[in-house]
Amino acid sequence: MKLGLATIGQTPRSDLVPTIREHVGEAVDIVERGFLDDKSSGQIAALGPEPGETHLVTRLRDGSEAPLSREGIVEEMQKVVESLDEEGADVIVVLCGHDWSKVKTRALIINPGVVFPSVVSALAKGRRLGVIKPSPSQIKKAEGQMNDWGVDDCIATSASPYIGDARLDAVKTAARRLREAEVDLVWMSCVGMDEEMRAVVLEEVGRPALLARSVISKIIAEAVSPLSVSAGA
Questions:
Q1: What pTM, to 2 d.p., does this model score?
Q2: What is the pLDDT of residue 226?
Q3: Which of 110, 122, 182, 229 is deepest in the core (most CB within 10 A)?
Q4: Which domains does the chain have, with CATH numbers?
């Protein structure tokens, strides 16, 4: 069976695909496509946010980060998903926590923008939740978003996963802020955040930490397992 991975950035997602591969096994064919795959640096810069806009953050092929405006992103990702559909993907995942409910496809689509609220709200309702976003511009919106998810007590901070080894210092600073706020649970909301970052959070905060990439990888494994078993039969 074939798993399609659609990113708002560039492929390959060498930071993320190995984690997904660990969960789905070797029988699954993974195909990646990205919105920015064929874009020049100038074109990518032109897609950046307006001043003060709450923007999306993604990873480029060289490992660096790029801020993207939300304007028109759903329509662009529809095209990326359609390309994966045409290549015969059985399951397609959009690798970003934005809500992609308007994106349509023949294949089964996994939408983190629906999956993540369900998981986080189920665990965090009635507790103080700490949220780590990839960009400071997303902090204010995150606190309101958590209220929409049914989580009334939320403290948000940020740490980019796309700044190399400096990400560990950034997440340590974020974690200390959450420790001071005495949170009960931490939501590491960006799929770019990795296990090394979670280890720092666990050490600093001393409370459970949900990692977005781990959550979505487990959901993907559940979605592809019946197909991969039948394909190998």
A1: 0.92
A2: 62
A3: 110
A4: 2-111+214-232 (3.40.50), 114-211 (3.40.50.12500)
